[in-house]
Design goal:
The protein is an alpha/beta fold and about 270 residues long. It contains four helices and 27 strands.
Amino acid sequence: MIHPSAQISREAQVDPSAEIGAFVVIDGPVKIGPRNRLKPHVYICGWTEIGSDNIFYPGAVIGEAPQDLRYGGQESYLRIGSGNTFREHSQVHRGSAPGSATIIGNGNYVMQNAHIAHNCEVADRVILGGGALLAGHVQVGEQAFVSGNCVVHQFVRIGRLALLRGLSRTSRDVPPFCIMDGTHTVRGVNVIGLRRAGIDAERIAAIRRAVRKIFGRRTNISRALEELAREEMTQEVAELIDFIASSKRGVCVGPPRGRLGLARSDEGDAE
């Protein structure tokens, strides 16, 4: 299961069921679990721990030192769960501070040339499009979709089932269930993503009403949250309110003149 051209450090621990392709380099105290597939020219290094059933495509660089001028070679970690896909030339760096970690959950799909920087936390079933860039300490919630060539500033949080449209950028937190584009601007609700996640029409309608109240007009967000808090709410609306209320960087803004994509049909206001 190990190609003769592969180079594997004596410190590494590789499960016998793992497939190691041609010219793969495993450098340092890497731990690779069962049934992982490393295609040719994959490079994995450092204090990296990998679960089971992941696949790494050619050119992927996993566990390299963080791009942080303060980093001095100290022991830090990358922990990857199970069932993830890392496409060609994707990059994931380990933590920066001593003993800290970058954490990748389960079932994620990281497309070509995407970058996950030090100390990021990526939950489960997240999709990162080609060329998407996550700076350090970014947190991405379950089933979020970060489209191609998006740029996410350090310490930003992306909520569960949020969708960032291609070429968008954000230095503010992206609320769960929302569609963001441009420069951290909420444009609507990720209806299709919500349906795929099994959220029924009534609960989606409640999310749409809440998003309209918060982002549909330029208003004081704290006041909008207070108004929503006085109403009966679904679990998802409570999640939306809690996410916004706990933001330290501030959240996305609504579009100019309140032009949210909420007046169209469900099929038209989500991508």
